[in-house]
Design brief:
Elements: H1 21-32, H2 37-57, E1 62-63, H3 75-78, E2 82-89, E3 102-112, H4 119-128, E4 132-138, H5 142-145, H6 160-180, E5 185-189, H7 192-195, H8 199-207, H9 215-227, E6 235-240, H10 259-265, E7 270-274, E8 294-300, H11 310-320, E9 329-333, H12 348-366
Length: 367
């Protein structure tokens, strides 16, 4: 079985990489007014070039900018949408063993797009990459997922279908411009569906007035509106996980409560699924996966420095192939190494060894 030349790739990755200390220091200086944004961008450019070169050198067919220009995987993008405000939310779920504050997107005005949000990020990445450049963006469902109906003005949006139409238009415009700039591989990051695998979070949805069994249908409609009119030749994947912050997590539970809806109603080409720990349950929910879609198994942990046992990973791929044909499977870490600028608790050397392992295993399994 040969290595595929179309995304997702046998050896793939979610996207974010640990921020180089130089980038962290420079960003801190900009926030204090000790450095100009232009000087920060020059440092980011240089570090992204180095990261792309490293990704390509270890054999990855897909490269990202490590999200070096972002502080947060979601807020930086969502906060650029006109009408969306990202605010500190003391009531939001806390990560396991963490009291760190979290943020929630609030909508109090009509949503629109006055101009490109992260188009320049992709253009630079694509200009320095010799392999396929992947761009990531948070799912529109995140706008509802965190705060529920209370985070969206009923005066501005009495009908949520109108909200998703407006949000969808924003995403469609950004995706159109990305495609024009050469983007052929887009990833929608959606934690909402994985959180609905956790009974504690499902109960919190009921308390706020939502039916957790209905939410996956709404989230699928939101994603579908965002990727409607997608350009021909663009592969769109969805990534989901149960939280990734300083090596901690938020949710647990198998994909059973959401699998049939998410896999069949969301019109994406592939799914990056967290499977690096027992918190994700077994592979049985993959029986609902359409035969036309690919599954990227997140069997390598981005949370820990310990390198996985190669044979154990291979056995798990074999287990998954009982539900999805081997030719429709790929391998990656379960999430990025730094969903926020803080990063997970491992070193850059650990990170690169993990990605090298993904490449090695994929060659041995798929040829």
């Amino acid at each position: 079985m040969s290595i595929t030349n179309k995304p997702p790739f046998r050896a793939d990755q979610v996207g974010s990489l640990l921020r180089p200390q130089e980038v962290k220091d420079a960003r801190a200086k900009v926030e204090k007014g000790e450095m100009t944004p232009e000087a920060l961008r020059e440092i980011e450019d240089r570090c992204i070039k180095a990261a792309v070169k490293k990704q390509e050198s270890i054999g990855l067919q897909v490269v990202t900018d490590g999200e070096y220009r972002r502080g947060w995987w979601n807020h930086d993008f969502l906060g650029k949408i006109d009408g969306v405000d990202v605010e500190l939310d003391e009531k939001s779920y806390k990560f396991a063993g963490s009291d760190d504050p979290r943020y929630t997107a609030k909508i109090r005005r009509k949503v629109s797009r006055s101009g490109p949000m992260m188009l320049d990020h992709f253009k630079f990445l694509n200009s320095v990459a010799t392999k396929t450049a992947k761009f990531t963006m948070p799912s529109p469902a995140i706008l509802y997922h965190r705060g529920g109906r209370a985070s969206i003005s009923k005066e501005v949006y009495p009908d949520l279908d109108v909200l998703w139409a407006d949000v969808g238009r924003v995403y469609q415009e950004e995706i159109r411009d990305l495609a024009a700039a050469g983007c052929t591989y887009l990833q929608i990051d959606d934690t909402s569906v994985a959180f609905l695998c956790d009974e504690k979070f499902r109960e919190s949805c009921r308390v706020r007035g939502d039916d957790p069994d209905m939410l996956p249908h709404m989230y699928a409609r939101a994603v579908n509106a965002a990727i409607a009119n997608r350009p021909a030749g663009m592969t769109i994947a969805m990534h989901t996980c149960r939280g990734n912050w300083k090596s901690t997590w938020l949710a647990s539970g198998s994909y059973d409560p959401v699998a049939e809806t998410v896999f069949n109603e969301t019109k994406v080409d592939a799914y990056f699924l967290e499977y690096d720990s027992e918190r994700a349950g077994g592979f049985e929910p993959l029986r609902f996966m359409p035969k036309t879609k690919k599954v990227v198994l997140g069997l390598i942990s981005s949370k820990t420095p310990q390198l996985e046992n190669k044979d154990a990973v291979k056995r798990r791929i074999e287990e998954a192939s009982k539900y999805v044909p081997l030719e429709n499977l790929c391998l990656s870490p379960q999430c990025g190494f730094a969903s926020t600028h803080h990063g997970n608790n491992l070193t850059e050397d650990d990170q690169w060894r993990k990605l090298e392992l993904v490449v090695e295993i994929s060659k041995e399994v798929w040829g």
